[in-house]
C-alpha cells in the first residue's frame, strides 16, 4: 500500500457540526482506521488544516486531537498550493464569501448546506466552480442514514407498489435558554443572521424527496415563530426573528404528495427525532434515522370507525422491523469517503453545488409561499 495525502482546510470546526460530525466522526475517524483504502493499492490519508477566527479555540482543539496545523488566516491557507480541498461548516451567512474565495484559489470544495442565502447566490457558486473546473460537493447526510438507506432498499425492491404519500415529522423542543441552556446556537433563531427552520431544513427535505421519491414540483408552506423571545449563549434575551416551525406540502414528480412538519417547538412522542411514513398501494413504511418498520398489504388490519368502543388492537405493534443486513457507517463519514474518491479517483458524484442550489431554491420558495399565502411551482434549476 502506498500512502497518498490529501490536505483539507476545514473552516468552522469549532462549531457543532464542523467539530463533531465532520472533524471527529469523519476525518479523524478515517485516520483512526488507517486512512481511506482507495482499492488501487493506495491509501488516502486526510490531513486537516484547521481554520477559524479564534486562535485559542483552534489551538486547544488541535492539541486535544494531536493535530499540528491550524490558522486564523483563511487567505494564507487558500494561497497554500499544498492544500487540495476547502471544507466549510461556518455559520451560513459566512459561507458564500469563503467559498467564492476558495473556488478562485482553485481548491476543490466540500461544504455544509445551505450553500447560500438565495438561489441566485447558490447558482453563482455552482457556475464559478464549473468554470474553474474544480470538484465540488455539498453535505446531504440524511441520504446516508441507516433508516433512509433501508427505505431506499424497500423502494428499489418494489415493496410499495405505487407510492401515494409521504408524511414527515421532524422536531424536538429547543429550550428557550432562560432556565435551561438552549441546545442550538442562537443565530438559528435570528433571520438577520441566516437563521430559521425553513432555511435549515428545507434543503434536507429537497434532496430526501428528490432522491427517494421524485423531484419537488410545487411547495405550499406555512411558517410560524411560536417562541418570539429566547436567551442567547451569554444569557441575554433576544427577539427571535426567524421561523421556528414550518408546515409544508410538496407535490412530487410522479404524483406522490409529501407533507412535512418541521419544528423546534414540539415535544417528541415518536421513536426518533425525524420519521417519514410512506404509504404505497402494496405496503407502508415508517423510517427514522436508524430504524424502519413496514406493514405489507397482506398484514394490514381492517379498523372500523366506531368511537363508542375502545380500541381493541395495538396498531403500532402490527409493524415489522426491517433488518440491517449490513453494517452502517456514520452518514457524514460515508459521504466524505465518496467525495474523497471523487476528488482523487474521479469517481462520479452528483451531490454537488447544483444539487445544493436546489435545496436553497426550495427554502426560498417555501418562505415566499408562506409570505404570499399560496402554492408555488418549483422550476427545474440549471446552470
Ligand atoms: N447537515 C446537517 O445536518 C446540519 C445540521 C446543523 C447545521 N448544519 C449547517 O452547518 C453550519 C454550521 O452550523 P452549526 O450548528 O455547527 O453552527 P455553530 O454556531 O455551532 O458553528 C458555527 C461555526 O462557524 C464559525 N463562525 C464563522 N464566522 C462566524 C460568525 N460571523 N459568527 C458566528 N460564528 C462564526 C464559528 O466559530 C463556528 O465554528 C450551518 O450552515 C448549518 O446550516 C448542517
Write the layout of secondary structure elements.
Blueprint: E1 2-11, H1 16-32, E2 36-37, E3 42-51, H2 55-64, E4 70-71, H3 74-79, E5 85-88, H4 95-104, E6 108-111, H5 119-132, E7 136-138, H6 146-156, E8 163-171, H7 197-212, E9 216-224, E10 229-231, E11 237-239, E12 245-252, E13 257-263, E14 274-280, E15 283-287, E16 292-296, E17 320-321, H8 331-345, H9 353-372, E18 376-377
Parallel strand pairs: 1-3, 1-5, 3-4, 5-6, 6-7, 8-13
Antiparallel strand pairs: 2-3, 8-14, 9-12, 9-18, 10-11, 12-13, 14-15, 15-16, 16-17
Bound molecules: nicotinamide-adenine-dinucleotide.
Kindly describe this structure.
This protein is an alpha/beta fold and 383 residues long. It folds into two domains: 161 residues, 3-Layer(aba) Sandwich (Rossmann fold); 203 residues, Dihydrodipicolinate Reductase, domain 2 (2-Layer Sandwich), CATH 3.30.360. The protein has nine helices and 18 strands. It has a nine-stranded mixed beta sheet with strand order 17-16-15-14-8-13-12-9-18. Strands 1, 2, 3, 4, 5, 6 and 7 form a seven-stranded mixed beta sheet that branches. It binds nicotinamide-adenine-dinucleotide (NAD). The site of nicotinamide-adenine-dinucleotide has 19 residues, from helix 1.
Amino acid at each position: 500500500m502506498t500512502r497518498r495525502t490529501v490536505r483539507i482546510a476545514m473552516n468552522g470546526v469549532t462549531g457543532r457540526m464542523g467539530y463533531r460530525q465532520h472533524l471527529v466522526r469523519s476525518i479523524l475517524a478515517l485516520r483512526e482506521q488507517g486512512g481511506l483504502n482507495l482499492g488501487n493499492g493506495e491509501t488516502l490519508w486526510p490531513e486537516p488544516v484547521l481554520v477559524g477566527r479564534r486562535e485559542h479555540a483552534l489551538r486547544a482543539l488541535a492539541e486535544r486531537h494531536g493535530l499540528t496545523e491550524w490558522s486564523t488566516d483563511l487567505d494564507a491557507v487558500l494561497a497554500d498550493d499544498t492544500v487540495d480541498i476547502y471544507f466549510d461548516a461556518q455559520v451560513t451567512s459566512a459561507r458564500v464569501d469563503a467559498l467564492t474565495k476558495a473556488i478562485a484559489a482553485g481548491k476543490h470544495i466540500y461544504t455544509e448546506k445551505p450553500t447560500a442565502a438565495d438561489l441566485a447566490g447558490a447558482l453563482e457558486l455552482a457556475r464559478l466552480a464549473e468554470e474553474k473546473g474544480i470538484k465540488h460537493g455539498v453535505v446531504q447526510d440524511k441520504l446516508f442514514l441507516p433508516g433512509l438507506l433501508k427505505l431506499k432498499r424497500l423502494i428499489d425492491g418494489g415493496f410499495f407498489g405505487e407510492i401515494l404519500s409521504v408524511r414527515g415529522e421532524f422536531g424536538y423542543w429547543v429550550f428557550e435558554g432562560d432556565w435551561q441552556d438552549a441546545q442550538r446556537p442562537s443565530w438559528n433563531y435570528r433571520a438577520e443572521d441566516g437563521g430559521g427552520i425553513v432555511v435549515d431544513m428545507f434543503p434536507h427535505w429537497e434532496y430526501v424527496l428528490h432522491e427517494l421519491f421524485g423531484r419537488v414540483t410545487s411547495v405550499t408552506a406555512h411558517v410560524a415563530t411560536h417562541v418570539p423571545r429566547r436567551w442567547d449563549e451569554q444569557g441575554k434575551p433576544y427577539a427571535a426573528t426567524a421561523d421556528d416551525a414550518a408546515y409544508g406540502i410538496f407535490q412530487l414528480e410522479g404524483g406522490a404528495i409529501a407533507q412535512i412538519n418541521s419544528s423546534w417547538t414540539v415535544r417528541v412522542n415518536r421513536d426518533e427525532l425525524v420519521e417519514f411514513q410512506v404509504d404505497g398501494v402494496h405496503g407502508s413504511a415508517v423510517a427514522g434515522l436508524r430504524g424502519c418498520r413496514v406493514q405489507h398489504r397482506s398484514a394490514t388490519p381492517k379498523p372500523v370507525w366506531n368511537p363508542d368502543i375502545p380500541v381493541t388492537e395495538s396498531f403500532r405493534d402490527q409493524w415489522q422491523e426491517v433488518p440491517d443486513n449490513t453494517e452502517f457507517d456514520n452518514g457524514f463519514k460515508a459521504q466524505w469517503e465518496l467525495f474523497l474518491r471523487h476528488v482523487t479517483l474521479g469517481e462520479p458524484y452528483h451531490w454537488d453545488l447544483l444539487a445544493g442550489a436546489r435545496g436553497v431554491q426550495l427554502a426560498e420558495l417555501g418562505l415566499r409561499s408562506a409570505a404570499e399565502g399560496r402554492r408555488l411551482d418549483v422550476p427545474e434549476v440549471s446552470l
